């Protein structure tokens, strides 16, 4: 009887030896691929968050610039205005284009905001805001 129980115990030990090298390598490969995908998505999320923050700050600069034009007395002159604004520890280049419209009591204002670091870029505004101002 003891002999049979020892044989069955030996067979059970032979079956429960653990993972093979191939199984460990496959599991490691799956883990590595999963980790790479997660890292890539995290990088994209950080980049998108940074871009969203930049656009939000630029929009605030554009809205402030537009508010100044609306409050300007007397009536704002037509033409281009370019200046640099420091906001949120960043420098922004603001370009205002004030134009006449078909209504003589109404002017169109286009405000473009650029990062000051990109001085050579005049076509890639971070934000463009268009509004109209009426004469009171």
Write the layout of secondary structure elements.
Layout: H1 2-15, H2 21-71, E1 79-87, E2 90-100, E3 106-115, E4 127-134
What's this model, at a glance?
The chain has helices at residues 2-15, 21-71; strands at residues 79-87, 90-100, 106-115, 127-134. The chain has 136 residues and is an alpha+beta fold. The mean pLDDT is 88.
Describe this entry's structure for a reader.
Helix content is 48%, strand content 28%. It contains 2 helices and 4 strands. Strands 1-2-3-4 form a 4-stranded antiparallel β-sheet, covered by helices on one side. β1 and β2 form a beta hairpin. The protein starts with a helix and ends with a strand.
Characteristic key phrases:
single chain, 2 helices, 4-stranded antiparallel β-sheet, Pantoate--beta-alanine Ligase, Chain: A,domain 2, 136 residues, alpha+beta
CATH superfamily: GSPII I/J protein-like
- Architecture (CATH level 2) name: 2-Layer Sandwich
- How many separate helices? 2
CATH class group: Alpha Beta
Q: What's the CATH topology name?
A: Pantoate--beta-alanine Ligase, Chain: A,domain 2
> What's the pLDDT, averaged over the residues?
88
The helix-and-strand class reads: alpha+beta
Tally of strands: 4
Shape: rod-shaped
Number of domains: 1
């Amino acid at each position: 009887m003891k002999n049979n129980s020892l044989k069955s115990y030996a067979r059970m030990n032979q079956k429960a030896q653990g993972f093979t090298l191939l199984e460990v390598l496959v599991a490691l490969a799956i883990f590595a691929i999963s980790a790479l995908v997660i890292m890539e998505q995290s990088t994209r999320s950080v980049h998108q968050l940074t871009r969203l923050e930049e656009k939000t700050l630029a929009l605030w600069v554009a809205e402030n610039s537009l508010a100044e034009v609306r409050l300007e007395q007397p009536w704002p002159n037509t033409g281009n205005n370019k200046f640099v604004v420091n906001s949120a520890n960043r420098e922004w280049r603001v370009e205002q284009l004030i134009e006449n419209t078909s209504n003589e009591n109404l002017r169109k204002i286009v405000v473009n905001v650029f990062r000051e670091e990109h001085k050579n870029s005049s076509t890639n505004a971070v934000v463009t805001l268009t509004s109209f101002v009426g004469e009171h």
